[in-house]
């Protein structure tokens, strides 16, 4: 059983920094899943969907519109910033986490200020689209640093990483549903829970990328080295 689990969830041909990365990524994604539940609950309450009877055409159109505008933002971000991610993948990955955290916060704001639901929800979705694009764009560069140099196994590292995260996300969502029922609908309770979870997630992500070691210098360090001569 142990061998089967290892074969299913752990890639071969990786260095020790991979295990440091995945340990903190598991913690980070578990917390992120809790935040996702909290944010979705806030969006639904902000939209006023407290029962099936209140779900009308207007609410559905508003929900679709905020997603569509978020996709447009993602498209613009990709066209403007796509070439910059390779120069400093770690820093861009951390910046993405900050932007995603802002998106989480704005989802909570939709519950606090539902009269401007479309504005806050669109901004929240736009932040998340930008963050997810940035995270996806830098992932291959980060994963490439985990290779032990003996084989080309980026696809294996990526696939096994997604398998791990699928399990963690399911556990996180289940826990998040329980947590949200305990937190209730009090704005103070929701905000307090959000800040605790969000700070914890950012810390985990910082520790996650802290252990990544590249074999090549990024643009900033190369510039400093050249200036030194």
UniProtKB/TrEMBL annotation:
It comes from the Eukaryota. Keywords: Membrane, Transmembrane, Transmembrane helix. InterPro entries: RUS_fam (IPR006968), UVB_sens_RUS_dom (IPR054549). Residues 4-228 form the Protein root UVB sensitive/RUS domain. The chain crosses the membrane at residues 98-123. Belongs to the RUS1 family. This is DUF647-domain-containing protein. It comes from Fragilariopsis cylindrus CCMP1102.
